[in-house]
Amino acid sequence: MAGGALPPVSRRRQLQGQSGWAGLVHNKRVFAIAVFASLGGLLYGYNQGVFSGVLGMESFDNRMGDAVSNATTKGWLVSILELGAWFGVLCTGYLADKLSRKYTILLAVIVFCIGVVVQSAAFKPSSIYGGRFVTGLGVGSLSMAVPLYNAELAPPEVRGSLVALQQLAITFGIMVSFWIDYGTNYIGGTGATQSEAAWRIPIALQLVPALILGAGVLFMPFSPRWLVNQGREDEALAVLSRARLQPPDSDLVQIEFLEIKAQYLFEKETAALKYPQYQDGSFMSGFKLGFYDYLSLLTSRTLLYRTVVGSLTMFFQQWTGVNAILYYAPAIFQSLGLTGSTISLLATGVVGIVMFLATIPAVIWVDKAGRKPILVSGAFIMAGHTGPCAWIVVAEIWPLSIRGKGVSIAASSNWVTPTMMKNLGFGTFVFFGVFSFLGGLFVLFMVPETKGLTLEEMDEAFGSVGLAVADARRQEAINKSIGLSAYDVDDGHEKRDVDDSDIKEEA
Fold it and tell me: What range(s) does the Major facilitator superfamily (MFS) profile domain occupy (predicted)?
């Protein structure tokens, strides 16, 4: 169910603030909330990075035996987390809409902690397999829920930067995990004398930021867009007022609130017209409406375009090979002649620092330069990987009514990852290089630029402004009924009346 077109020119555009670092400082409350929520990204990154070092520790090899020495089972020790994350992110779409973005983050943290405890206390490979799968469920859920939450709380001029904080936190977690592995590698000595604490401690340390996030999320606000979708409009207005540091009756807060409400009312009315038989509020009707929401991602022409853009953007981001580097970095450096686990872990730590530093410019400039230039340059030159902008695009392109479901489907392609290091050798990196180039071409020609747009204006970016006449008139009526049209201003743009030439086919 695509959202309706908002007034083409509005006073909100005049009130929109600065982007970049100045915009983040101006929106200090939202900035602080997004930084804290991005602890979920730190967990994601730390978990990705820490296991690469653990795999190379002799005490871990001795404890797990053939599970580590055999290439196939070693690959499964790594990829079982990806499988759990894929399943977790698919489930999160429903949970984020049903429970709220906030409580979905809390649930994901609880699941994550269970998996970490199982791994930390593991004495057999089966415990590592099970623990990593459960941890993956939490990681996958966090990887989707955190950018979704940040996107819905952020003002449009800094939304890219705030969502990209998730990726900065991921690279920070990776960097920290690499150096913790390097430090704990010395516990009990090296080689045969190494203590099992060398690998149990870095795994268990994940619980610290997880518990902080789990406790702190209880004090964070609900997403204002989720609140509107639940009919809790007074709460949504209060959240927006506090987040924007403006009184509830200010133009800035009122316009954003009315834009969100207008899209919600349009989508609710559209659902009632398309599925009148499922409007009784029963569990079964709600289930069927949810099913048709998922189905609309493939059957609606405008939503299918967004599904393709979101899924392939994440797919190409993953197939740049960044996860292969993260999981097998010590082994890669050993194959290049850096012998000894200590030297390879040191080199891996340097990689972590480079990745973290390379992400910072994208966070600061993504709302000034735009999503496409950073995505394309990242794919073509690989100065840093394209993660920040990929997650931004996936989090912001969906209509309110299906945003959770849309993000979950698109983000799931991030967890479809190959295990080819042993089989292809150098050819693996040639393969990844080809996909990086193809990903750059895809973004260049297929992905629209979304910087500066509100979440409610994404229809314009995706070419679905030309609604059928009846839909456009319904949208205009809704805008007038709630007072949104009163904020239209004339700055030289011509506002056309709706006529038959505007009719476009809508699935």
Answer: 33-507
The residues near 54 (Cβ < 8 Å, ≥ 6 apart) are: 60, 181, 199, 202, 203
Distance (Å, whole) CA 440 – CA 301: 24
User: Exposed (0-12), middle (13-18) or buried (19+): which is 496, by Cβ within 10 Å?
Assistant: exposed
Q: Could you tell me where the beta strands, DSSP code E, fall in 50-102? A: none
pLDDT averaged over consecutive 10-residue blocks of the chain (507 residues)?
Answer: 43 63 78 89 86 83 77 75 88 89 95 95 90 93 89 84 83 87 82 84 94 94 93 94 90 89 88 86 84 84 84 78 63 61 63 78 78 75 58 77 79 62 58 78 84 74 62 81 74 40 38
- Is residue 494 helix, strand or coil? coil
CATH topology of domain 11-224+300-446: Growth Hormone; Chain: A; (1.20.1250)
CB 235 within 8 A of CB 245: no
DSSP-derived secondary structure letter, 296: H
Of 30, 15, 72, which is closest to residue 242 (Cα–Cα)? 30
Alpha-carbon torsion (116, 118, 122, 127), positive or negative: negative
**Count of Cβ atoms closer than 10 Å to residue 418 Cβ:** 17
Alpha-carbon distance of 484 to 474, in angstroms, equals 14
Amino acid at 14: Q
- Domain positions in the chain are 11-224+300-446
Go through 297-318 and write b for each residue having 16 or more CB atoms within 10 A of its CB, e for each that does not.
Answer: beebebbebbbbbbbbbbbbbb
Which CA distances in Å does 453 have to 44, 367, 461? 28, 10, 8
Report residue 482 as tokens: 């709630």
**Could you tell me if 163 and 396 are in contact, meaning their C-beta atoms sit under 8 angstroms apart?**
yes
DSSP classification of residue 476: H
Q: Are 330 and 56 in contact (CB under 8 A)?
A: yes
Looking at residue 120, its amino acid is S
Burial of 425 (0-12, 13-18, 19+ CB in 10 A): exposed
C-alpha–C-alpha distance, residues 475 and 465, integer Å: 11
**Angle 25-400-452 from CA coordinates, rounded to 5°:** 40
Could you tell me if 501 and 292 are in contact, meaning their C-beta atoms sit under 8 angstroms apart? no
pTM for this structure?
A: 0.78
CA–CA dist 166, 170 (Å, integer): 6
> What angle (nearest 5°) sits at the alpha carbon of residue 351, between those of residues 349 and 355?
120
Q: Is the dihedral of CA 109, 111, 114, 120 positive or negative?
A: negative
* C-beta of residue 115 within 8 angstroms of C-beta of residue 137: yes
